[in-house]
Specification:
By secondary structure, the protein is mostly beta strands. The protein has two domains: 126 residues, Immunoglobulin-like; 121 residues, Immunoglobulin-like, CATH 2.60.40.3880. The chain contains one helix and 16 strands. The strands form four sheets. It has a five-stranded mixed β-sheet, with no helix packed on it. A five-stranded mixed β-sheet has the order 10-16-15-12-13, with no helix packed on it. Strands 1-3-6 form a three-stranded antiparallel β-sheet, with no helix packed on it. 20% of the residues are buried.
Length: 277
C-alpha cells in the first residue's frame, strides 16, 4: 500500500510539472526598445516613453500546433485613472517541433503623460489562452517623478516664479532686473473644470503697472489652452515675458495675471512684482 501511494504521488508530481499554468513572465520596463530591464526603484520622468515587454509560458496548442493568445494592457496613475487607451492585441502562431519550449514575447510602448504627477503608477496585463480558456494577470509598479503642482478644487495660479532667461531652470531668489533686461516668469494654472473627452478651455491675461500704478502693458489673451486629451490634463503650464527699455526707471513694478476657466466659469487673479534696480 505504501509503495502504491508513493507511486501515485510521483505520478501526480509528474503530471503537475507537465501541466504548467498559464503565466506572464519576465515583465520588464526598459529605456529603449529591446533594452534590458531597468533596476528596481528606477524613477521615470513625466513625458518619457516606457518600453514594456513580457513573455508567456504555460499556454496550450491545438492538435495542429496552433496557438492563440489574446491580451490587454492598461496603465494607471496613482488615483487609478488610465493614462493610455487600452492596448488590445493577440499572439497567433504555428509551432514547429523545436518550438515546444518557446515563450512568446510581447513589446509595447507606454508613454507617461507629459504633465504627470509624482507617484506609483502601474502597468496591468490581462492574458487569455483562447485554446485552453486559461487566464493570467500581471501588475508592474512604476515610479514616476513629475512637476509638483498642489491640487485645488477651484481655479488658482500656483508656482509663480521669475527667471533671468527663457530657458533657465533656477528661479531668481529676488525678482530684480536692470534697465533693458527681459523679464521672464512661469506659473501653473490648476483647478479648472473638464468638459467632454477631458476638454479644457483655459486662458490668461497679463497686465504690467509702473511704480505709480499706471498701466504700461496689457494683453487680455496672453495665452490660451483649448484642448482635449485621453488623459486629463492635470494643470496648464504658462509663461510671460516683458522686454524693459534701457531708460526704464528704477522701482517696483506690478504684474497682474488673470486666469479664466471658460468651462467652469471661474476667474482667478494673481498679483506679483519685480524691481528695476
Amino acid at each position: 500500500m505504501r509503495l502504491r501511494i508513493l507511486l501515485l504521488l510521483a505520478l501526480a508530481s509528474v503530471c503537475s510539472a507537465a501541466v504548467a499554468p498559464l503565466t506572464i513572465v519576465n515583465a520588464v520596463v526598459s529605456d529603449s526598445d529591446g533594452g534590458g530591464a531597468l533596476p528596481p526603484g528606477f524613477t521615470h520622468i513625466a513625458g518619457e516613453i516606457m518600453f514594456f515587454s513580457f513573455q508567456v509560458e504555460g499556454y496550450k496548442a491545438t492538435s495542429g500546433d496552433k496557438l492563440l493568445l489574446t491580451y490587454k494592457i492598461d496603465a494607471f496613475d496613482p488615483r487609478g485613472v488610465r493614462i493610455i487607451d487600452t492596448i488590445d492585441d493577440k499572439i497567433e502562431a504555428s509551432l514547429a517541433p523545436e518550438d515546444k519550449n518557446w515563450k512568446p514575447m510581447v513589446h509595447h510602448e507606454v508613454p507617461v503623460p507629459p504633465l504627470a504627477g509624482s507617484g506609483t503608477y502601474k502597468i496591468v496585463v490581462a492574458l487569455k489562452d483562447e485554446i485552453a480558456g486559461a487566464t493570467a494577470t500581471k501588475e508592474l509598479p512604476i515610479e514616476v517623478s513629475g512637476h509638483r503642482v498642489d491640487p485645488s478644487d477651484t481655479l488658482v495660479i500656483r508656482n509663480f516664479r521669475f527667471y533671468r532667461g527663457e530657458d533657465d531652470t533656477q528661479a531668481l531668489p529676488k525678482a530684480a532686473y536692470r534697465p533693458g533686461d527681459a523679464v521672464w516668469a512661469r506659473f501653473d494654472i490648476i483647478g479648472f473644470k473638464y468638459g467632454d473627452a477631458n476638454s479644457i478651455d483655459v486662458s490668461y491675461g497679463v497686465t504690467v503697472t509702473s511704480p505709480s500704478g499706471k498701466v504700461l502693458y496689457s494683453e487680455p489673451q496672453a495665452g490660451v489652452d483649448k484642448s482635449q486629451s485621453f488623459y486629463p490634463k492635470r494643470y496648464v503650464p504658462a509663461s510671460m515675458s516683458l522686454q524693459t527699455k534701457p531708460d526704464t526707471r528704477p522701482g517696483e513694478y506690478g504684474v497682474v495675471v488673470t486666469a479664466h476657466d471658460n468651462l467652469g466659469n471661474q476667474t482667478y487673479e494673481s498679483r506679483q512684482s519685480f524691481t528695476i534696480e
